[in-house]
TrEMBL record:
Record protein name field: Protein-export membrane protein SecF
High-level lineage: Bacteria, Candidatus Desantisiibacteriota
Subunit composition and interactions: Forms a complex with SecD. Part of the essential Sec protein translocation apparatus which comprises SecA, SecYEG and auxiliary proteins SecDF. Other proteins may also be involved.
Residue runs in coiled coils: none
Function: Part of the Sec protein translocase complex. Interacts with the SecYEG preprotein conducting channel. SecDF uses the proton motive force (PMF) to complete protein translocation after the ATP-dependent function of SecA.
Membrane topology term: Multi-pass membrane protein
HAMAP family, per database record: SecF_B
Any one Gene Ontology cellular component term annotated for this protein: plasma membrane
Domain Protein export membrane protein SecD/SecF C-terminal: from-to ranges: 154-330
UniProt keyword annotations, A-Z: Cell membrane, Membrane, Protein transport, Translocation, Transmembrane, Transmembrane helix, Transport
Length: 336
């Protein structure tokens, strides 16, 4: 089965429409980020506490939110796992239960005495919801808080993780540098395999993809955590692979039709790869939809980010990266 056989779409001629679409999407994302006071960074980057709890029977999410709000944790974020009767509570730095915190807890929350990655798996599940002797002060506060709100319920602390602000800043810095060096490496590779006039537009298209996806995630009130960073890096890899396939066909056609107008040659090349681009994107989206709907709530944000990235990345390979090469080539020819 072959899609888009012998198509003759004028992608280069309609490039300004594509630029307008990209600008509109970028502006929507930028306005969303500014209006919400910046990115919605997770505790991975700003520091805080993560508590995973198990309830039997499981209270309603609104009841749990009310208990948290009544105890000074109105901004806490919840993630519900109905099949396991579990929830994850994320409390960012600066929020704490409205109760005097012990010096040990304060030291842990500061991030200066607790290293990242320390996770305590607690066998705290009991009929009476009594605190386990092995519980730390933070876990005990959550256990006591919910035990008082839901007497007679079985309540267990599955895990507790604390990330200090200094560690969060370090992780944020590492994430930014990972994206930066990834872009530099791609620019060098594309410049070596093709020409510099291909590498700069390719990186601009990748920045376009990352920025628009990040803006849309902010628009949908999604939290930016390490999983999202992994998704963004995956999107960069997917998009550049798609772009290189198109670039390779452009280079091939330019050699074959050296005397023809460059825009016409690029249109032929893009149309030739259109079927492959469509099939690759469609099959990837089908897999991601399966992961999103059946992979469990933990992986929702990752799958959703990739869904956005595949759509935006496929679009940019055709409507952004290639037309930017055309613009570059046209300016270079005029300068000569």
């Amino acid at each position: 089965m072959e899609f888009f056989k012998n198509t003759k779409f004028d992608f280069i001629g309609k490039r300004k429409i594509a630029y307008t679409v990209s600008i509109v999407l970028a502006v929507i994302g930028l306005v969303s980020i500014i209006s919400k006071g910046g990115l919605n960074l997770s505790i991975d980057f700003v520091g805080g506490t993560l508590i995973q709890m198990k309830f039997e029977p499981m209270p309603g999410m609104e009841e749990i939110r009310k208990v948290l709000a009544d105890n000074g944790l109105k901004g806490a974020q919840l993630q519900h796992f109905p099949k396991e009767s579990e929830i994850i509570i994320r409390v960012k730095k600066g929020e704490q239960i409205t109760e005097e915190v012990s010096p040990d807890t304060a030291a842990q929350a500061s991030g200066e005495t607790q290293s990242y990655g320390e996770t305590r798996s607690l066998a705290a599940f009991s009929e009476t919801a009594a605190a386990s002797p092995r519980m730390g002060s933070v876990e005990k506060k959550f256990n006591d808080m919910f035990s008082a709100a839901f007497p007679g319920a079985k309540i267990g602390i599955i895990r507790a993780e604390m990330v200090g602000p200094s560690v969060g800043k370090k992780l944020l810095s590492q994430a930014v540098w990972a994206l930066f060096w990834g872009m530099i490496g791609i620019m060098i590779y594309v410049g070596w395999r093709f020409e510099f006039k291909y590498s700069a537009p390719a990186v601009l298209a990748l920045l376009h993809d990352v920025f628009i996806v990040t803006g849309l995630l902010t628009l949908f009130n999604m939290e930016i955590d390490m999983t999202i960073i992994a998704a963004l890096l995956t999107i960069v890899g997917y998009s550049i692979n798609d772009t290189i396939v198109v670039y390779d066909r452009i280079r091939e056609k330019v050699k074959m039709y050296a005397r023809d107008e460059i825009g016409k040659v690029m249109n032929v090349a893009i149309n030739d790869t259109l079927g492959r681009t469509f099939i690759t994107g469609l099959t990837t989206i089908i897999v991601l939809l399966c992961i999103f709907f059946f992979g469990g709530e933990v992986i929702h944000s990752f799958a959703f980010s990739l869904l956005l990235g595949v759509v935006i990345g496929t679009y940019s390979s055709i409507f952004v990266a290639s037309p930017l090469v055309y613009e570059w080539d046209k300016r270079y020819r005029k300068a000569r």
